[in-house]
Design a protein that fits this description.
single chain; 449 residues; ABC transporter transmembrane region fold; Rossmann fold; 4-stranded antiparallel beta sheet; 15 helices; 6 strands; 67% helix
């Protein structure tokens, strides 16, 4: 945009095609060509450019953080609806890693893609003006840029492969770390950190190596942008000064323009490389979404509000792979009756309760609640009327009141406070809670300490 300003006092025969185009445009809209009008045009052009850059970055940030939020919520809902059998056969670290790390990386890849699109827009704008100024030079540099892009394709493929390995080792690190923290008491009491840390540190080291390689690969295109641009500009200067006999002052603006234009062209390869380096997160998200969609828990539509008569198992058979646990089990549990299920470890006691709650589906046979086939029931309505005390304590890092209410209501409000206290009295723990430092508002850790 500086060319028309610098050429304002030159004769028409000495003005380039680009300068003449700008002058003709101003005259066509009724504006006299002068230094003042050209400076105003220059300011307007750069204001538009600044506004475009601001809008691009703002829109990219909005899209990025909105997507992260929405996709995290979507995956949480997918976890809620997945089959229990799929959950038991899937690494917790893998499921956790998707939400905490891979969604951010995947959306980062989309953000990189918007940067690539933005670069393409700038490239098209600069190439348009470059063709007007010197089409031969423009086509030559475009050819060199395409050649460079072709040579760099192997780097892009390698970056994508390493990105997937980063995602894989992220999940492995999180899996081992979660297990270490969860079993901290046992590991601490038996001084078993050496063994578990040997595995954990090996995974951390692998993750470090893959991340380092990824950064190195993305740095290669970035590091050659400046040398190639300077090499091109040097050739441009030698051509015009050495062969065309022009002075440095005459070609100064031309050199600056081409330097800016082709920096964008060469930078496109760097942006594309960074996009490929973050594709691992996007692929992990996409694959996990497909798998979760194929492992959705099947539920009926009939609602159940209360339990009135009996729970019945009729000719129920269930097996884990080749190991059969239940053989034509028939059982009726009447309302207001207490029964005990006794058996050796692995006999199927927990499996029985998992079948009754709909977590597991028997290979054959039926389960009836008040004469209604469980397969016809909307399972969340069934589970809402079940009180279930597991072998492991289910305690969240929050107040005692919120652990009792499960955040169903605000524990500080009167009606909610009464329901929480009534539940505690029924469980014979009201006295114990009141002896705590802050009563029902005492914070307990997720281990109940």
């Amino acid at each position: 945009m500086l060319l028309p300003v610098l050429n304002v006092d030159k004769a028409a025969s000495d003005q380039g095609q680009y300068t003449k185009t700008i002058y003709n445009f101003l005259e066509s809209i009724g504006i006299n060509v002068s230094l003042f009008s050209l400076i105003i045009l220059l300011l307007i052009a750069f204001l538009f450019k600044g506004a475009f850059v601001f809008l691009q970055k703002t829109l990219a940030s909005y899209i990025r953080f909105s997507l992260i939020k929405d996709i995290r919520i979507d995956f949480c809902n997918k976890y809620k609806g997945m089959k229990y059998s799929y959950y038991t056969n899937t690494s917790i670290g893998y499921l956790n890693n998707i939400i905490t790390t891979e969604i951010g990386r995947g959306v980062g890849a989309l953000n990189r893609y918007t940067v690539v699109i933005g670069s393409l827009i700038f490239i098209l704008i600069y190439i348009t003006f470059a063709v007007i100024i010197n089409y031969k030079m423009t086509f030559m540099v475009l050819f060199l840029s395409l050649l460079l892009f072709t040579l760099m394709r192997s780097l892009s493929r390698l970056s994508k492969k390493i990105s997937l390995l980063v995602s894989e080792t992220n999940a492995q690190v999180q899996s081992l770390l979660i297990q270490t923290i969860y079993n901290y008491k046992y590991i601490k009491a038996t001084d078993s950190f050496t063994h578990i840390f040997k595995q954990l540190f090996a995974k951390i080291n692998k993750n470090y190596i893959y991340q380092f390689k990824s950064v190195v690969l993305t740095s290669i295109p970035s590091s050659i942008i400046e040398p190639i641009s300077v090499l091109f500009i040097s050739g441009l200067v030698l051509y015009y000064v050495g062969f065309q006999g022009k002075t440095i002052a005459e070609i100064f603006v031309l050199v600056i323009f081409f330097y800016k234009a082709f920096s964008y062209i060469f930078r496109f390869q760097s942006d594309w490389q960074k996009f490929n380096a973050s594709l691992g997160g996007l692929e992990v998200m996409s694959k996990a979404s497909r798998i979760l969609n194929n492992n959705v828990e099947k539920v009926g539509k009939r609602q159940i509000i209360a339990f009135n008569k009996a729970i019945e198992l009729r000719n129920v058979n269930f097996s884990y792979g080749s190991k059969q646990v239940f053989f034509d089990v028939n059982l009726a549990i009447q309302k207001n009756k207490s029964i005990g299920i006794v058996g050796d470890s692995g006999a199927g006691k927990t499996t029985l309760f998992d079948i009754i709650t709909g977590l597991l589906t028997p290979q054959s046979g039926k389960i009836f609640i008040d004469g209604i086939d469980c397969s016809k029931l909307e399972l969340s309505s069934l589970r809402n009327i079940i009180g279930y005390v597991t072998q492991e304590p289910v305690i969240f890092n929050d107040t005692i009141a919120n652990n009792i209410s499960f955040w169903e209501c605000k524990s500080q409000e009167g009606p909610c406070k009464k329901m929480i206290k009534d539940a505690a009295i029924l469980a014979n723990c009201d006295r114990f809670i009141n002896e705590a430092e802050m009563g029902y508002e005492t914070i307990i850790g997720d281990k109940g300490i």
